[in-house]
Structure formats: C-alpha cells, structure tokens
C-alpha cells in the first residue's frame, strides 16, 4: 500500500496490477484463520468500498461532465475494504478526506497557488495505516 501511495503522489496513477493483487491478497488473507477480520466482513467491505466510490465516480461524471475521482481510487478503496472490513471504512474515508483537505490547505497557504488535484489514493493509504495502527494498539492494550 505504501508503494501505491508514493506512486500515486508522483504520477496521480494507481497501477492495476498492484491494486488487483492488493484486493486478491486482502480477500485471501481474511479467508484464513489469521485474517484481520472475518471473511464475510472483508467481502462486504470490498463490495461496499467499490460500490460507494463507483457511485461517486458516476455522480461526479454526470454532474461535472468530467472525472472527479480516478478509477484507481475506486479499486483501492475496494482493496482497503477487503483488508479492513466494512466497519472501518467510514473512519478511513473520513480521515482520508480530512488528510486530503489539510494537504490542499497546506499547499494553498505555503505556495499560495491553487492546485488542480490531490492524490487521494495516498490520503486513503495513510489513513488506512493510521486506523489500523490505532485498532491494533487499542486491541493489544485491552488484551
């Protein structure tokens, strides 16, 4: 996921081979007994992530007549749902949106120039890592 986030920050592109492998490995890992979440949560997380972002993709295209969200972001959010499950997706989306907004505001304040787009895949990746690290730190402090 870190490779995807750095690649997205540089080129505003998420390669299909990496995102498809991330989806496959997320579902496969959660199918075993050592997964992060039960498999049904991972499967519904994948479907919900793809469905939500694809609907945003379509609505943005119909309203603005241009792509407001890249299709790589749709696949990445589906992969995040496959790894983390349905329950963590709202937190990841909220944190990723705040991270993207803060990056945009920081660039606007420091450079005083409007940027046309923000690498949202990087924001989603880092917010996923933050949510998972918070989840594991709180899980291990309880047990």
Automatic annotation (TrEMBL):
What keywords were assigned to this record? Hydrolase, Membrane, Transmembrane, Transmembrane helix
According to its UniProt entry, the protein's GO biological process terms are:
signal peptide processing
Any stretches that span the bilayer, and where are they? 20-37, 44-63, 91-111, 118-136
The keyword Transport is assigned to this record: no
EC number(s) given by UniProt: 3.4.23.-
| Tagged with keyword Transmembrane | yes
Q: What terms describe the molecular function in GO for this protein?
A: aspartic-type endopeptidase activity
Q: InterPro entries, alphabetically?
A: Peptidase_A24A_bac, Prepilin_IV_endopep_pep, Prepilin_peptidase/N-MTase
Q: Which GO terms describe its cellular component?
A: plasma membrane
Q: Where is the Prepilin type IV endopeptidase peptidase domain?
A: 1-103
Top enzyme class, one word, equals hydrolase
Family stated for the protein in its record: Belongs to the peptidase A24 family.
Protein name per its UniProtKB record: A24 family peptidase
Q: Which organism is it from?
A: Proteus faecis
